[in-house]
Every structure is written in structure tokens, then in C-alpha cells.
Amino acid sequence: MVNTVEKPTFEEIRPGVKAPAQETLLTPRFYTTDFDAIAAMDLAPNEEELQAILEEFRADYNQKHFVRDEQFNQSWENIDGETRRLFVEFLERSCTAEFSGFLLYKELGRRIKDKNPILAECFTLMSRDEARHAGFLNKALSDFNLSLDLGFLTKSRKYTYFKPKFIFYATYLSEKIGYWRYITIYRHLEKHPEDRLYPIFNFFENWCQDENRHGDFFDAVMRAAPETLNDWKAKLWSRFFLLSVFATMYLNDIQRKDFYAAIGLDAREYDKYVIEKTNDTAGRVFPVILDINSPEFYDRLEICVQNNEKLSAIATSNTPKALQLFQKLPYYISNGWQCLKLYLMKPIDVTAQHGTVR
């Protein structure tokens, strides 16, 4: 008898078009902001560096990089069962995140082009990069007989309003953590090609350089507007966004540890390395970073992991929905408490390094 693994099924809004994942606190978000405030920014304190970054964007180093080749011309039926489900989820989450960046950057480029042409062109060219990334990921989904309706996402997703400085914190960290995530996977698979589940990982080295340049752009923008970095509020917000990004990634990835195992990675060790590198990188611009080497840091995140496992078990149980909220409440409270304690941990002040580390 031949053992077969049943292929996962996905909810579709029409044949071949995957229904978007349900929005939660841990799913990629779409953003909007105060466009007039960004248009009015004075770039003079750092205009030379921003102009140099703009020239890099114009050079378009990856213009011919995102082209599917013969590696993709095969069946992917060998990726099945839970691995297939998790990989499709990975592609969808990545595509949604890249498309979110595209929408925000495109709108910024459009809305501020008459008042702040340097910033506007930078945003427009970053939107070009994000569109390529999203399109490449969506095409990868077609190898699994699925796609995302990105137009539908544009209209159906809720948009979160962030003040400009919050946009800068969030997108800077998103781009830099994206760099470390992609390059870490690429370097691992370069050493262990037998773990390369699918050809998209071969593109991650050049891909992550787009993320890195985007992060450098937001670094330069924040230093052009020192009020985003140089007061006590900046220290509080830096801690908040660092913790939000790190906790979100950790909880998401541990929940999907089988995907990382399928490409030969331990999700916890992978995340700890990415968090360490992103935290160090953030120290080049943020006034404070998190003390991730304190045992308390990961101990509290692990409590949140355990809480989330219990929340998932409740959500899939036969308990009536009306009662599930009461069962979930203690775990929600515990997660909030752990995050509060993590936020209140003494951070590491790195302002003294800014004169020497770039």
C-alpha cells in the first residue's frame, strides 16, 4: 500500500484565488499617515546622504533580478501536507507585507511629489522594489495553484493610521529585520542546498539588499529630523517598536516552527540570531535598544508562546464561541502582562555609539 499525504485545502474567494488570511494582531498591516507633515519635512540636516541614497535607488541594481528561470519549471507536488500549508502561508504573509509597503510608499510618492521631490522620488522607487517583491511572491503562489487578488486586498484591508515618526520607526525596523531574515535563510541554504525547498530562496541575497537600502533610507530620514530620536519620548517609542517587532516575529515563527524545520532551521535559534542582529543594527540610529541578553527577555516570550498555544487550542475546540472568550481571557491578560514587563526592562543606552558606529 502506498502512503499518501492529503493535500491541504485553502478557502478561495473564486477558483484559484486564495481568500486573505484573517486579520489578527500578528498579521501584516496596511498603513496610512499624515502626508502633509512628511511633505513639509526639512531634509537640509542630512540632504547629502539622502541624495546619495536616491542615486542608489535610481541605479536599480535588481532591475533584472526578479525573473523566473528554469528552476521553477517543474511540479511542486512533492511539497505536501503540513509543509505545503505552511509554505503557502509563508508566501502569502510575505506577499501581503511587501504589498503593504508598496501601497504606502506609492501613496507617499504621489502625495508629496510637488512639495518634497527628493523624498517623493525615494518613496516612488522603493514602491517599485516592493511591487517586484510582491509580484514575485504572488507568482510563486501560482506554482501551488493559488494567487492573491492584490486589488481586493487594497480595498478590503483595514488601514492603521500612524504619525510620520511612527511610520519611520516601524518601516525602518521592518526593512532591517527583513534584511536579516532573508540573508540568514540564504546563508544557511547556501551551506545546506539539500534543504532548499523551493527556488525562491536563491533570490534572497539580492532581495535582502533592497530591504537594507530601504532601511538605510529611513535611518537617514530620522537623522534629518532629530526630534524623532533625541528626546525622552524617542527612547520610549524606540523600546515600544523594537519590542513589538521582535515579539510579533518570535510568536509567529514559533507557531510555524515546522516550516523552518522543513528548510533545516530551528525557529528559536533563527529568531534569536535575527533579533540580535536587528537589535544591534537599530543601535546605530535609535537612542536605546533592548537588553535581549537578559534571561528574562526570552523567558517571558516563551510564556507568551505557551499562552498562544492554549489560545489556539481553545479556538479549535468544541466549546461554544460565547464561552471561549472567558476561557481565553486569562491568557490574553498574561500576554499583556508579559509584554508590559518586557517593555519595562531597563534598555541599553547606545547614544554614545552614534558618533563612531555607522
Give the arrangement of secondary structure elements:
Layout: E1 12-14, E2 17-18, E3 30-32, H1 35-39, H2 47-59, H3 81-112, H4 117-142, H5 150-156, E4 159-161, H6 164-191, H7 204-224, H8 232-255, H9 257-262, H10 267-282, E5 288-289, H11 295-315, H12 321-344, E6 348-349
Parallel strand pairs: 3-4
Antiparallel strand pairs: 1-2, 5-6
Please tell me about this protein's structure.
The strands form three sheets. A two-stranded antiparallel ribbon has the order 1-2. A two-stranded parallel sheet has the order 3-4. The chain has a two-stranded antiparallel ribbon with strand order 5-6. The chain is mainly α and 358 residues long. The protein has helices at residues 35-39, 47-59, 81-112, 117-142, 150-156, 164-191, 204-224, 232-255, 257-262, 267-282, 295-315, 321-344; strands at 12-14, 17-18, 30-32, 159-161, 288-289, 348-349. α3 (81-112) packs antiparallel against α4, α6 (164-191) packs antiparallel against α7 (204-224) and α6 (164-191) packs across α10 (267-282). A hairpin with a 2-residue loop joins β1 and β2 (17-18). The longest helix has 32 residues, at 81-112. The mean pLDDT is 91. The radius of gyration is 21 Å and the shape is globular. The chain contains twelve helices and six strands.
How does the overall form come out from the CA principal axes?
Answer: globular
Helix content: 55-70%
Structural class: mainly alpha
> Order of SSEs, N→C?
EEEHHHHHEHHHHHEHHE
Specify Rg, calculated over alpha carbons.
21 Å
Alpha carbon gap, first and last residue? 62 Å
Major beta-sheet overview: 2 strands, antiparallel
- Helical element count? 12
Strand order in the sheet with the most strands: 1-2
The count of β-strands is 6
